[in-house]
Amino acid sequence: MEAAKATAAVRGWREAAQGSVLLDGFHALKHALRFGADVSAVLTTDRAAVAVLAADLAPDVAARIGESAVEIPATVLKELVPRLHPTGIAALAARPDRAADLAALTREPRRAPVVVLDNPRNLGNIGAVVRLAAGFAAAGVLTTGDADPWHPTAVRAGAGLHFATVVERVTVDQLPYGAPLYALDPEGDDIRDVPFPDDALLAFGSERHGLSEAVRSRATRLVAIPMRPQVSSFNLATSVGMGLFHWQTGRG
Ligand SMILES: C[S@@+](CC[C@H](N)C(=O)[O-])C[C@H]1O[C@@H](n2cnc3c(N)ncnc32)[C@H](O)[C@@H]1O
């Protein structure tokens, strides 16, 4: 009976994997469930260990994890998820509807900024930024360029918090027009003199080349986070964290 259930679950996974979001690890699954993800398959190497983790770290979703988790041999799960998370659990979820997500960002009034990552290169940075956006309740994270912000590495770095905010890849032309755009750049005006309005777009440049000309030319203002002389720049995700903190602390 258990073996038949495991075989069916692995078959279901193989059929659904393409086109689904991989939730790699307990924390990614926990956050995805909390923020309304449509989770279609949950596989683990150890149901008892997962139950202990869930009771300890996520009692709010423990029952749902317990009901849906199917135990399969570690060798099989590692075939399906080569970089299996140390918590020994993985799940698949449906990617949110792009049109609905983008429409939500243009609905007015928008009460929290949208973070724009201009051609980010590092998937770990993208995940870290999604996690920051979720934590600060930003309206969303839009990326330009060819990196997929829903790549499994980015979702893993974001601890599944992609489901707590809007995350989409767009062209510069698709950025919500009309919203004031504050472009973060070490050469800009001191951020301490520039409050960010709730409906701002906060744009950050790529790790290698900074802001593109296309985004710079749309900027309402270039804004700098103060740095000690001779330091050229902060890390991208760190800059986003400081930018969002600045927005939050400046709210009335
Ligand atoms: C690693 S930096 C890019 C460095 C790149 N070599 C350059 O020429 O700008 C990535 C992004 O973080 C933001 N950033 C980093 N340090 C900043 C600072 N001191 N003030 C404002 N933004 C900063 C900017 O948006 C920047 O484009």
From TrEMBL:
One Pfam short name: SpoU_methylase
Signal peptide: none
GO molecular function, one term: methyltransferase activity
SUPFAM superfamilies: alpha/beta knot (SSF75217), L30e-like (SSF55315)
Protein keywords: Methyltransferase, Transferase
Any one Gene Ontology BP term: methylation
Residue intervals of the tRNA/rRNA methyltransferase SpoU type domain: 114-244
Membrane-spanning segments: none
Source superkingdom: Bacteria
Keyword Transferase recorded: yes
The protein, known as: TrmH family RNA methyltransferase
Organism expressing this protein natively: Streptacidiphilus cavernicola
